[in-house]
Design goal:
By secondary structure, the protein is of the alpha+beta class. Helix content is 41%, strand content 30%.
């Protein structure tokens, strides 16, 4: 069908003539309500964005000399974050001369890992970054 005839047919039906494949020989066109098509496309994109899960990275900071109750509080907070589906960055800061004993931070992060084992798995093991030791934990896959 010629473009002129197609345009005339679309005008009679009070619809739009839209090029679907302009690179094809001859170009492929379709008669449709273009405004309704755009609206439905936006609606599908909005629905797809709604179903996406944005994973945030939450951070828990501790110092190398942390008390037991403070540690338990941090564990509870971490479990809440992991159950919510967020990733976790656990960092142990070393103050002043405490940086000379990184094994204390390693032990602390090891205890932290064992306490969170039921809700999370270690994504990146503990490693030093400046004056802090960092470990990443991601939530376990839910069934």
């Amino acid at each position: 069908m010629s473009a002129k005839d197609a345009q005339k047919l679309a005008y009679e039906k009070d619809l739009d003539l839209v090029k679907i494949a302009p690179q094809a020989k001859p170009p492929v066109c379709r008669i449709m309500n273009y405004g309704k098509y755009c609206f439905e496309q936006q609606k599908r994109e909005k629905e797809a964005r709604k179903n996406q899960k944005v994973v945030a990275i939450k951070e828990i900071r501790m110092f190398s000399a942390i008390d037991t109750h403070d540690f338990e509080t941090k564990i509870n907070q971490a479990k809440k974050f992991l159950q919510g589906g967020d990733k976790l960055k656990v960092s142990v800061r070393f103050r002043k001369r405490a940086i000379a004993h990184p094994q204390i931070g390693e032990e602390l992060l090891e205890r932290f890992k064992e306490a969170c084992a039921e809700v999370g798995v270690v994504e990146k093991p503990a490693k030093m970054e400046g004056r802090s030791m960092v470990m990443f934990i991601s939530p376990k896959a839910s069934k």
